[in-house]
Amino acid sequence: MKAGEDEAAESPPRTGRDAGAWLIFAGLGFIVGQLASSILLVVVAAATGHASQIAQLATRPVPPAWVEVTGLVGLWLGFVSAVVLTSRLRGTGNPFRDMGLRVRPWDVIIGPLIGLGGQLLLLPVLYLPLEHVVPHLDQRLKEPAQHLTGGFPGSDLAIIAFLTVVVVPVIEETFFRGLVLRALLRVFKGAGPVVGVAIAAVADGILFGLAHFELLELLGLAAFGAVLALMAYKFRRLGPGIFAHGTFNLLAILSVAGILH
User: How many other C-beta atoms can be found within 10 angstroms of the C-beta atom of residue 223?
Assistant: First the structure.
């Protein structure tokens, strides 16, 4: 892990104070994203004649595709704004460099393998002890993906799938494994090259899981988030994690669609 440690030392944030600022910007970006999602939902609902049905539509087991897309776009506005603002005020001014947003040819192989392992190995092992405790566990674990993608006609499903598999991984990895993780690595640097990295990765995974507001899925999301954090640290770039994240999401969509069991 020496290489990752050297990279973290050379790249922003270079001081604990900078790291604290990065985390504050990340928190503000998350809040702004939530607010932007709500505002955009109201605006789009009014424009499409659904202003009086917002609450009803948003709480459906399968809401309209435009509700999901609007929510995603609003959240992304907050995430991207936080990354850009942090880079300009407490970084080099180049968010691609500051967040490690780079892709190498091998990432196309490494990432999907990790994503497959996350869905097919990590999650089954994590939730095995809960199978006899939580009724209909398998179905309940699929509910968030069904809420996001289930029941849409072909064109809407294609759009949601594209956003979930291609766009979501880029933005979430840049935010969580770029902005948040690099700040946490600096904060916990004093704990040492092994313990400090472990604490930062676990903390990043937990924050990633909590940000999805899914209690039952928290364990799996946090664990896979920690894996993605270790990948970002080990490879010193986000490319492998982006492809792993995309593959992880793709398998969830295929499972909901009945293509993968």
Answer: 20
Q: Is the pLDDT of residue 148 over 70?
A: no
Question: CA quadruple 161, 67, 171, 147: dihedral positive or negative?
Answer: negative
The Cα 255–Cα 136 span in angstroms is 16
Dihedral angle over CA of 81, 18, 107, 227, nearest 10: -100
Reported pTM: 0.91
CB 256 within 8 A of CB 149: yes
- The pLDDT of residue 56 is 74
**What is the DSSP secondary-structure string of 50-116?**
-GGGHHHHHTSSS--HHHHHHHHHHHHHHHHHHHHHHHHHHS-S-HHHHHT----TTHHHHHHHHHH
C-alpha gyration radius of the chain: 19
Is the CB of residue 242 less than 8 Å from the CB of residue 170? yes
Q: Percent of the chain, pLDDT > 90?
A: 70
Asked whether the beta carbons of 155 and 64 are under 8 A apart, the reply is no
The tens digit of pLDDT for each residue in 238-255 reads: 999 999 999 999 998 888
Residue 35 corresponds to which amino acid? L
Q: For residue 230, what is the enclosing H or E element?
A: helix 218-235
DSSP state of 130: G
Torsion angle (degrees, nearest 10) of CA 88, 93, 96, 98: -80
- pLDDT band of residue 196 (cuts 50, 70, 90) is very high
Farthest CA pair distance, the chain = 57
Token digits of residue 163: 């956003």
Rounded to an integer, the average pLDDT of 178-184 is: 98
pLDDT at 2: 47
Of 37, 39, 122, 100, which Cα lies nearest the Cα of 73?
37
